[in-house]
Structure formats: C-alpha cells, structure tokens
C-alpha cells in the first residue's frame, strides 16, 4: 500500500515543494508484517527513531503498538513527548557522556551501554539496582555499505567480543542486573544468516550471564530500494531465532525474549521527497535535470551512493530518456546518473521514493536553503506535520553582535 500519484500531486499542489510526504498505513503494514513473522516468539519491536523523529510519526508508531529505540537523550524526550511510557522506550547510544546515561536512567527507560568505561561508571553509581543491557561488537561484517556496517572488527560500536572476560568480571564484582545482550551489525542486511550468526553468538554469551533474559538483535532489515531488490526474509530469521531459543531453553531452562530495532523497515517505503524541476540543461554528453532540492534535503545518494527510485509524476507517459538528476546546492549533488525517466520538462514534479528513513532526518540548511515541510497521509487525508522552515527560523538561534 502506498500514496497514489494523484495524492502526491495533490500534496505538492497544496503544500508546495520541496516536500516530504509519508503514508501512515504503510508504516502500520510494515509493523504488522514484523508482528506476524515473529508471532510464535516472545518478540518486541522498538522503532529506531533516528530514521524519522517527527512527533506525529512517533505518535502514529505508538498508536500501532510499537515501542521505540532512541539514540540520544533528546530522542528519549521526544518519545516521551509523543506519549511513549518509559517501559516502551529503549536507549542505545554510543560514545556518550556518563551524565547523559544518568539523565536517561532518571527517566526510567531501558538502557543499553556500549563501552566498558561507561559500564564501570554505571556499576559504581547503580550497582545491580537498575537493569542494564550491553552492546557487544560481534566482529561480523554486514550491511549495505561500509558506512552503515557497525558490527565488524574495526567498528567503534559496542564492547568487543574479545573483552567479554572483563565484562564478566565487572558484572560479577558489582552484581549487575545484566538484562539484555545487544548487537546491531548494520543497516540493509539482506541475509538471514547474519541474524542467525548473531543470535548464536549472543546465546553463547547468555550462557555466561544468568541474569540475561533479553536478546536484542538491533535493526537492519533490508527493504528494496532498486526495483530488482528483495526485502530481508523475516520468516527465515524468525525460524533461526525460534530454533536457537528452543535449543537454549532445553539446555538451560531459560526462556528468552527477542527484541528488534527496525528503522528503515518501518518508515523507508512510507516516505517520498517531492521536488520540482527548475532547469533542464541538455549538453553534448548528458541532459541535466536540476530540481529545487539537493543534498541538503536527501543526502543518501551523495553520502552512501544510495539508489532512490525516481518518478516523473506529471509526465509519466513521456518518451524515456537518460537524465542526470541533480540538486541546487553549490557542489556536486547528483541524485542519479544516466537515469531513464519519461521526458522531463521544467515545472515537472519528481518523486524520490523510499525517502522516509534518514531523509528529512539527515537534512540541513546548507546554503541557507530551508528544510522542507512534511505531510502525513492518513486514510487518504494529507495533514501538514511540519511547516516549511523560513529565513526567520535560520536566524532565530543566532546572536547578532
Ligand atoms: N539500532 C541501532 C543501534 C542502530 O544504530 C540503527 C541504525 C538501527 C537500530 C536501525 O537500523 P535500520 O533498521 O534503520 O537499518 N543513515 C544511514 C543508516 C544509518 C543507520 C544507523 N543506525 C542510511 O541512510 O542508510
């Protein structure tokens, strides 16, 4: 289920461009797919808020029964603002000050710690009085590209698996209530085998820590970006987890919960960036299409060489031609090279698909161009959920001396 071409055109006409448009029902559908695939397990899903933190999106995510994963104290505060209870909030950060962890503990949410150094400080402050999780670096290479791979042996994330001896000592000395073992090996993981490997590894560790009752496998489920790509096989992952948990239960008598932190899986496909064509510039080699957006609004193609499907909403039946789709920022900000599109004319409206995750959220006001407005379609009704930024917004925090 998605927003129709007519609905996208309607939103652009009503609210102007550039514009982010999201579709509430697609988020709910994706959540339902997760819930169905893992229904035989004791599973919980925490939406990785970093993908898109608009409060109306967070409220929608809460309304469909999903919990929330936050990567900063401010994301935790946004989640509370959106109505999540502390029991529904998980905080998984890295390289943060202990003061931030203390603040999050004071809010009563679940906390996952990513370094021995912070765990030592946590132990000194709370001992076993507050349950805690630890992020393990499993030394597994996974994910769509190196920038979004987080579990490999050179990664900054988590406590390296080879330091598990020190972790054990810390837990035993301070009688920590180690509740959760966590890994997040990367984003856009297409192979179920990566999750199978992760769960095996965490179960071996769980054996060493009798208080552990939760295995958190992080996010990273892949959604198709290119037309020929496939979604991660959730049923295959569920089956691997089910088998591994059953074996563990037989061996130890312990019944575990599994947690996931999906970001892209829930919101990527639900979002579109709409931009208007400002300039068509034919040259000897390629025809450039300039739009009223750029890397300031959707940085994924430039930062990760990510593919985003593009459609020409206002001339869908035009003669196909290869175009270089580019932004209006003062450096090279190509959205796509040699992309075949129905003939593009100045004034046409283009849609960049799969822009819901890490789209608006990574936007900036580079070149003093304002960030787009955001619209949420629910039951066929578009509602503005963030007004377009203005020059006054850009000036608001500045102190003129
Ligand atoms: N859990 C943790 C601890 C994470 O660090 C992340 C993402 C997730 C869950 C959610 O991963 P997802 O399900 O969305 O793949 N900006 C990049 C993606 C960075 C992901 C960072 N961490 C992109 O646009 O591709």
Key terms:
alpha/beta; eight-stranded parallel beta barrel; 18 strands; binds ligand LLP
Structure description:
This protein is of the alpha/beta class. The chain is 31% helix and 24% strand. It has twelve helices and 18 strands. Strands 1, 11, 12, 13, 14, 15, 16, 17 and 18 form a nine-stranded mixed sheet that branches. It has an eight-stranded parallel β-barrel with strand order 2-3-4-5-6-8-9-10, surrounded by six helices. A hairpin with a 7-residue loop joins strand 14 (320-326) and strand 15 (334-342). Helix 6 packs parallel to helix 7 (164-173). The protein is globular, with a radius of gyration of 23 Å. It starts with a helix and ends in a 5-residue tail after the last helix. The structure holds ligand LLP. Ligand LLP binds next to helix 10 and helix 11.
Tally of helical runs: 12
Q: Please tell me what the overall shape is.
A: globular
Q: How many β strands by DSSP?
A: 18
Uncertain ranges:
none
Q: Structural class of the helix and strand makeup?
A: alpha/beta
Taking Cα atoms only, what radius of gyration do you get, to the nearest Å? 23 Å
What pattern of helices and strands is seen along the backbone? Answer: HEHEHEHEHEHEEHEHEHEHEEHEEEEEEH
Ions and ligands: ligand LLP
Report the helical percentage.
Answer: 25-40%
Largest sheet: 9 strands, mixed
């Amino acid at each position: 289920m998605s927003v129709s071409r007519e609905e996208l055109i309607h939103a652009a006409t009503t609210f102007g461009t550039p514009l982010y448009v999201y579709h509430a029902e697609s988020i709910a559908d994706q959540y339902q797919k997760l819930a169905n695939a893992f229904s035989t397990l004791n599973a919980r899903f925490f939406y990785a808020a970093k993908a898109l933190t608009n409060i109306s999106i967070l409220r929608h995510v809460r309304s469909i029964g999903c919990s929330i994963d936050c990567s900063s104290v401010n994301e935790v505060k946004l989640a509370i603002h959106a109505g999540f209870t502390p029991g529904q909030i998980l905080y998984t950060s890295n390289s943060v000050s202990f003061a931030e962890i203390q603040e999050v503990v004071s809010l009563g949410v679940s906390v996952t710690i990513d370094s021995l150094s912070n765990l030592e400080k946590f132990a000194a402050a709370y001992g076993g009085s507050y349950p805690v999780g630890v992020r393990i670096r499993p030394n597994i290479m996974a994910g769509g590209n190196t920038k979004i791979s987080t579990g490999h042996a050179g990664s900054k994330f988590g406590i390296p698996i080879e330091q598990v001896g020190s972790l054990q000592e810390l837990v035993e000395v301070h009688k920590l209530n180690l509740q959760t073992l966590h890994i997040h090996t990367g984003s856009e993981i297409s192979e179920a085998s990566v999750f199978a490997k992760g769960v095996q590894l965490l179960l071996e560790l769980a054996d060493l820590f009798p208080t552990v009752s939760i295995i958190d496998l992080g996010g990273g489920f892949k959604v198709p970006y290119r037309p020929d790509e496939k979604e991660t096989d959730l049923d295959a992952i569920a089956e691997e987890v089910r088998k591994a948990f059953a074996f563990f239960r037989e061996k130890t008598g312990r019944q575990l919960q599994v947690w996931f932190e999906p970001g892209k899986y829930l919101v990527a496909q639900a979002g579109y960036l709409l931009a208007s064509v400002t300039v068509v510039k034919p040259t000897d080699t390629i025809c450039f299409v300039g739009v009223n957006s750029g890397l300031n609004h959707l940085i994924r193609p430039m930062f990760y060489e990510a593919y985003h499907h593009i459609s020409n909403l206002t001339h869908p039946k035009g003669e196909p031609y290869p175009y270089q789709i580019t932004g209006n920022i003062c450096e090279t900000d190509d959205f796509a090279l040699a992309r075949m599109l129905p003939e593009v004319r100045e004034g046409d409206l283009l849609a960049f698909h799969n822009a819901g995750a890490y789209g608006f959220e990574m936007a900036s006001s580079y070149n003093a161009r304002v960030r787009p407005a955001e619209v949420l379609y629910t039951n066929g009704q578009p509602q503005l959920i963030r007004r377009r930024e203005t020059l006054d917004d850009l000036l608001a925090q500045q102190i003129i001396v």
